[in-house]
Amino acid sequence: MAGTGTTRFGHGGRNTMTAGPLGIFGGVFDPVHFGHLRTALEVRELVGMDDMRMVPCRIPPHRDAPIASPQDRAAMLRIGIRGCEGLHLDERELQREGPSYMVDTLSSIREEEGDRPLCLVLGEDSFAGLYLWHHWQQIPKLCHLVVMTRPVDPRPTPPELRGLVEEHLAEDRASLCERPAGLVLPIKVTALGISATRIRVLLHRESDARYLLPEAVLNYILEKGLYGIKSEYGQTG
User: Fold this and answer.
1) Which 8-state DSSP code applies to residue 213?
2) 109: Cβ contacts below 8 Å, ≥ 6 apart
3) What confidence score (pLDDT) does residue 67 get?
4) Domain boundaries, the chain
5) Which of 12, 60, 130, 224 is deepest in the core (most CB within 10 A)?
6) pLDDT at 66
7) Structure-derived torsion over alpha carbons of residues 41, 12, 90, 87, reported in degrees to the nearest 10
8) Residue 1's pLDDT is what?
9) Gap between the Cα atoms of 91 and 8, Å rounded
């Protein structure tokens, strides 16, 4: 079923090498918006992933704490992916205490999925800071890295990551299916220029945030009074 969510996934004894690549799309999703959803759908289609796991983090190690609660962020993401084929909610980081280290998440997914190809989807900015992540050297051993690049003015690769890119650059998308992990694939995606920060600012100012995020997600925010909005926000006379 498209856009359904669950907490744990197992391979159920299937031959994981016959399964298509599994995408992992992490983020704070505070709130989820069309920038997240469009790129997730686009990468899934371009790479040929069977499934894209949307993984909201509980405590981001390298940025400020989320404003909305884990429960609200999961609920918004569940609503947002409804009807999005191949996108599924994975709540394991929300249920794990302490900082949400991606290496721990990948290790648990690898344990469940066997030798199925795993693809961690990253934006250019996130990839540029990969060398600052907890046990980052283990990450390419657990998954492929699919790096979403800007259509214009791409960001240079940091010196700390040049060796990784030069030695493990994927020849093409099909090569991701040939091994479980270890390749880096840059891929151009549509840049919508939407940010969760901007959405929160608009909502706090009681400005119109329509068409930046799914209407059902916006309605959830209004009903719950998230991000400091008042109960009369959006009401018309």
Assistant:
1) S
2) 9, 22, 24, 53, 118
3) 96
4) 18-228
5) 130
6) 95
7) 20
8) 36
9) 8
Q: Which residue has the tokens 């066997």?
A: 114
CATH number of 18-228: 3.40.50.620
pTM: 0.89
From CA 179, how far away is CA 68, in angstroms rounded?
38
Give Rg (Cα) of the chain.
Answer: 18
The pair of three-digit structure tokens given for residue 179, joined into one six-digit string: 């091994």
Q: Would you state the pLDDT for residue 231?
A: 56
Give the amino acid at 198: R
84 and 3 Cβ atoms separated by less than 8 Å = yes
Closest listed residue to residue 192, CA positions, set 31, 55, 39: 39
Residues in the chain, pLDDT under 50: 1-2, 4-15, 235-237
Structure confidence at residue 13 (pLDDT): 42
Structure tokens at 63: 């940025």
Q: How many residues does the chain have?
A: 237
Q: What is the pLDDT of residue 237?
A: 38
Q: Write the CB contacts of 145 (distance below 8 Å, at least 6 apart in sequence).
A: 119, 120, 122, 127, 130, 139, 183, 184, 185
Residue 102 is encoded by which pair of tokens? 């991606």
For residue 186 the two structure tokens come to 């840059």
